[in-house]
Q: What sequence folds into this?
């Protein structure tokens, strides 16, 4: 059976980071190093952590 899960993603304004939603988890991915950080299970959780990391302004479309 093929994987039909839809991948959602947002890139930072400098294209160095991305937010990916995989299996209901929101991840911050550093594009160049491929490192990642779990942001939470909801968009609201992810936004709060991005604010704590001082990165929310980097994602105007999120």
A:
């Amino acid at each position: 059976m093929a994987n039909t899960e839809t991948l959602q993603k947002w890139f930072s304004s400098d294209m160095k980071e991305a937010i990916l939603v995989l299996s209901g988890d929101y991840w911050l991915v550093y594009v160049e190093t491929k490192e990642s950080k779990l942001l939470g299970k909801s968009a609201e959780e992810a936004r709060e952590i991005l604010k704590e990391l001082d990165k929310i302004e980097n994602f105007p479309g999120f």
Summary: The chain has a mean pLDDT of 91. The beta strands are 8-11, 17-22, 25-30, 36-40. The longest helix spans residues 43-52.
